[in-house]
UniProtKB/TrEMBL annotation:
Secretion signal, residue range per the UniProt entry: 1-25
Protein name: M36 family metallopeptidase
Record-linked Pfam families: FTP, Peptidase_M36
Residue spans crossing the bilayer: none
Domain FTP positions: 68-112
Native source organism of the sequence: Tumebacillus amylolyticus
Keywords in alphabetical order: Hydrolase, Metal-binding, Metalloprotease, Protease, Signal, Zinc
Lineage: Bacteria, Bacillati, Bacillota, Bacilli, Bacillales
Region feature Disordered, mapped onto this chain: 199-226, 405-425
Compositionally biased tracts (Polar residues): 210-226
Amino acid sequence: MKRKTMITAIATAVMMTTVVPAAFAQTGTPTVAAPAAKSVDAQAAAGNALKAEAAKYGFKSDLSDLQLVSTTNTLGGTIVRYQQTVNGEELFTHQVAVTLDNAGQALLVTSDYVPNLTVETIKTKKLTENEAEAKALADLNVTGGASAMNSRKFGYVVENGKAVPAFKVVSHNGEAEVESFVHAENGKVLKKRDLHQNVNGTGKVFNPNPVRTQGSATGLTDNSNRDSTALTNQLKAVTLQGLDGSGYLRGSYVYIKSKANTFSSTNAFNFTRSSSSFEDVMAYYHIDTVQRYIQTLGFTNVNNRAITVNTNASTQDNSWYSPSTKDLTFGTGGVDDAEDAGIIAHEYGHSIQDNQVPGFGATEEGGAMGEGFGDFMGATYEDAVAPNTAFKALIGEWDATSYSSSNPPTLRRLDTTKKYPTNMDGEVHDDGEIWSHGEYDMAQAFGRDVATKIILQSHFSLTPNSGFANGVAAIKAADQALYGGSHLTQLNSIWAARGL
């Protein structure tokens, strides 16, 4: 989500009820293995690496409760991902990822595995899927009953060192999307979280936003979405790549869905900001540009899809990515969020991480990493499009004119003095400033391209429960895989400055 100041009741409940198993503290610490020189089959190599680490992480010797999820080829090697299971069912959010270099040697094991679990059994009667959904909805005070959009799945969650039978229920209610874990026998909601942690033409956009391109916020006001000479002067003509020729803003990487239903028989989309179609063009152009940039770095399997984008779909001053629908939604409170490329790139960052590690951000630290990465994507994108030292380490300057008193206005900064764990306060946007600062410093030290390449590569090595320590270890492993560890000294310094 965009705003660090908007904490809903649901989000607050998440912070209070999310349980990180005590065993994770002993088993989740990442280790970096010294690469060897022998090339082998990826799955076999990953299995051997896990067996070699079995005593450390508590894996079963035959790995019988680790179910293969995926084998992903990347620029720096192969990521083999496993799901921990209990009685053949998923232990929700607990995965293991093995990072192999291009020679098939293990660089990193990232583990959410919980060993020696006691399994709670159902003594009387197991709830049905419909009953579990009803319990989840009642806990959220949602009326109207079941929805075809809601999903339910049986598995297990870790509670107080036990594997507890539960249903994962993802419910949708208007703009809310909540993942609830419901005890499969007594119906108690064990924990929950808000998931709102997707032919060439021409068009006009803010690139990246009018504050950056004018050089200041002077004279730039939202004024209820009206046009002004100052704002119109900041429009830039751009090429809209990859349109499908239908006349709508639909293409290789973006599918705009909006009330405006923007259409042009000539594929010319030239609007000013007073038109609802303007945000459609903004979202299409900037998301398409970010995805094409990612592919220039060599990543053709990172969110390579036509993401559905719902522009002006909420009256909130907020925007979000939905892991269940895989869509983006942008709000219209204050300055319309989709009028600022930094905000657009931030939200697309959430989609990127979910695409690389489905379910990422199951812990508070993971959520903070997600917000921090979104800010990194937004700030470095703005820097690349309109470099100006007055705006270094800032994001969303135009959007922020409706709520920020700083000069220049900003959603958040990527150069605060925050350090881990001293300045952690349990709010993902606040704590995300620790993570974004480290990633932004990487861009200043190595350049945007190298930093982004290392960070994207590192995501493949993470799991849903990964936190800051896992993230730093994965970044170092990614540098080893891509650049032979040539940036390790600087990486150690950068992350040590953040307390990591």
